[in-house]
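REQUEST ID: PR-0412
SUBMITTED BY: lab tech R.K.
PRIORITY: routine
TASK: structure prediction, single protein chain
INPUT:
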Amino acid sequence: MEPLAERHRDGLREAAEREPQVHRFTGMYSLGFDAWFDQSLSSESEVPFVVHVDGRPVGSTRYLNVELLHRRTEIGWTWLERRNLRVRGALLGIGATFEGIFRKHMVLPDSIRDSAWYAIVGDDWPAVKSPLERKIDRHVNGRSRSGG
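STATUS: complete
OUTPUT:
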């Protein structure tokens, strides 16, 4: 994962085109790829990232609603997998707590989307940190052993 830059545009476009159904619930669905990418790069209040697997862009995520005074940030606009249910399960698997559903959170061209909210707060971090680091290590080492 690294900060999003113009050099990622073509690779991310290809990733987005490989699985267009992923974007059904994202801003890219209503904006289109180039407008989404331009908006991502120009944001002064969000920190977008590109996610790489085996050296190739496969998705994106970002920090948003950064509140230094309250020592919090959100991670969102994430697209990596076919179904958000997999992402939701993965969040629970790393120790995030399901906070609830933000009903009618986002207007899409053909519907109104609900959003699921998860949290890892400072009090949770001591219990989450080591298992999360082990999962990341297994993922990274597993990829490198399998030819990545």
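NOTES: The helical segments are 9-18, 27-31, 33-42, 84-93, 125-145.
REVIEWED BY: pending
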